[in-house]
């Protein structure tokens, strides 16, 4: 043999982004912005965070040889690569620590979306981790609360909430130094099509029964009766229950509704940025329970899923018996 050849099945070592890519990201997301956005390190790091999301969602997905990075790792590379930011590299640890502290003080706004019976609310599951929450997110600079809620709901669920949102109907809580305001958007049809517009942020969307979401405590992180892990859901439930008791739902409760949550969108074979796999979306036309069990598609599924339409069969049998009965 003339030499050793690397096996094609051997894992490819991930590499750091080249300087050309870092310069492009820095120029596109950090430097070419209004001057006021560069007046504080908090604003600069929000810009770097946008560049990081683009790198993970696009660059890494297109090029499997690139390494997925944490925000801190990516920030360090950007500061070391960008001439404007390079003088501040010695202070980067303090800058990043201040930014992390600042982020938990940024107001959060979102929505509690109720169906037409007020028995279910829409929850979203994050891309990483098992927690479910109401669709919500941090407010942008100079953005009004209701505008942030409409934007976040649209990004995380694909639902346009502007026509149903009432600026006066909301529940607000304070967690440490952070204000969280959730607008109540009631009367959404349960057959509404939902799908996130942003990549790698939401992994699942489901209608969950409110009576399943009544935990024993008001902790920020809690578990529902069904075992779902909830984030920032429990503290809003008492106020939400009071609001529901004071308002008449458009539709009466349906006796034929499933007892468990209804999954209306789920990402399958999702890429986390560490490989080049393609995301396959599962839409509402292929519903599944929110506990994550996929539809039965295994061998023999067509037989197991077959159901007789008993009514017409009985009518046909009755007609046949009547034809042979003696007068």
TrEMBL record:
<dbReference type="InterPro" id="IPR036189">
    <property type="entry name" value="DCP2_BoxA_sf"/>
</dbReference>
<comment type="similarity">
    <text>Belongs to the Nudix hydrolase family. DCP2 subfamily.</text>
</comment>
<dbReference type="InterPro" id="IPR007722">
    <property type="entry name" value="DCP2_BoxA"/>
</dbReference>
<dbReference type="GO" id="GO:0000184">
    <property type="term" value="P:nuclear-transcribed mRNA catabolic process, nonsense-mediated decay"/>
</dbReference>
<keyword id="KW-0479">Metal-binding</keyword>
<keyword id="KW-0963">Cytoplasm</keyword>
<dbReference type="InterPro" id="IPR015797">
    <property type="entry name" value="NUDIX_hydrolase-like_dom_sf"/>
</dbReference>
<keyword id="KW-0464">Manganese</keyword>
<dbReference type="InterPro" id="IPR044099">
    <property type="entry name" value="Dcp2_NUDIX"/>
</dbReference>
<dbReference type="GO" id="GO:0005737">
    <property type="term" value="C:cytoplasm"/>
</dbReference>
<protein>
    <recommendedName>
        <fullName>Nudix hydrolase domain-containing protein</fullName>
    </recommendedName>
</protein>
<dbReference type="Pfam" id="PF00293">
    <property type="entry name" value="NUDIX"/>
</dbReference>
<dbReference type="InterPro" id="IPR000086">
    <property type="entry name" value="NUDIX_hydrolase_dom"/>
</dbReference>
<feature type="domain" description="Nudix hydrolase">
    <location>
        <begin position="104"/>
        <end position="232"/>
    </location>
</feature>
<dbReference type="GO" id="GO:0000290">
    <property type="term" value="P:deadenylation-dependent decapping of nuclear-transcribed mRNA"/>
</dbReference>
<dbReference type="Pfam" id="PF05026">
    <property type="entry name" value="DCP2"/>
</dbReference>
<keyword id="KW-0694">RNA-binding</keyword>
<dbReference type="InterPro" id="IPR020084">
    <property type="entry name" value="NUDIX_hydrolase_CS"/>
</dbReference>
<dbReference type="GO" id="GO:0003723">
    <property type="term" value="F:RNA binding"/>
</dbReference>
<dbReference type="GO" id="GO:0140933">
    <property type="term" value="F:5'-(N(7)-methylguanosine 5'-triphospho)-[mRNA] hydrolase activity"/>
</dbReference>
<keyword id="KW-0378">Hydrolase</keyword>
<dbReference type="GO" id="GO:0030145">
    <property type="term" value="F:manganese ion binding"/>
</dbReference>
């Amino acid at each position: 043999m003339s030499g050793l050849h690397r096996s094609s099945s051997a894992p490819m070592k991930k590499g750091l982004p080249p300087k050309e890519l870092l310069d492009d990201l820095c120029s596109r997301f950090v430097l070419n912005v209004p001057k006021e956005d560069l007046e504080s390190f908090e604003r600069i790091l929000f810009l770097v965070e946008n560049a990081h999301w683009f790198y993970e969602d696009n660059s890494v997905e297109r090029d499997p040889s690139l390494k997925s990075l944490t925000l801190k790792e990516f920030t360090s590379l950007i500061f070391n690569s960008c001439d404007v930011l390079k003088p501040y590299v010695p202070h980067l640890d303090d800058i990043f620590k201040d930014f992390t502290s600042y982020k938990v003080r940024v107001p959060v706004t979102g929505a509690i979306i109720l169906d037409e019976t007020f028995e279910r609310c829409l929850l979203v599951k994050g891309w990483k981790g098992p927690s479910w929450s109401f669709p919500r997110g941090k407010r942008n600079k100079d953005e009004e609360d209701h505008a942030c809620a409409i934007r976040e709901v649209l990004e995380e669920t694909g639902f346009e909430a502007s026509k149903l949102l009432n600026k006066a109907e909301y529940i607000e809580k304070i967690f440490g130094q952070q204000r969280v305001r959730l607008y109540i958007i009631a009367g959404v049809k349960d057959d509404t099509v939902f799908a996130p517009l942003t990549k790698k942020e939401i992994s699942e969307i489901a209608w969950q029964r409110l009576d399943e979401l009544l935990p024993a405590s008001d902790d920020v992180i809690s578990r529902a009766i069904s075992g779902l892990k909830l984030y920032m859901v429990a503290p809003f439930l008492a106020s939400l229950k009071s609001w529901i008791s004071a308002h008449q739902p458009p539709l009466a409760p349906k006796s034929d509704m499933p007892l468990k949550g209804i999954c209306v969108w789920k990402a399958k074979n999702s890429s986390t940025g560490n490989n080049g796999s393609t995301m396959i979306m599962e839409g509402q036309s292929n519903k599944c329970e929110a506990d994550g069990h996929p539809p039965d598609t295994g061998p023999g599924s067509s037989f197991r899923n077959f159901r007789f339409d008993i009514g017409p069969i009985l009518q046909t049998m009755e007609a046949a018996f009547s034809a042979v009965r003696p007068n």
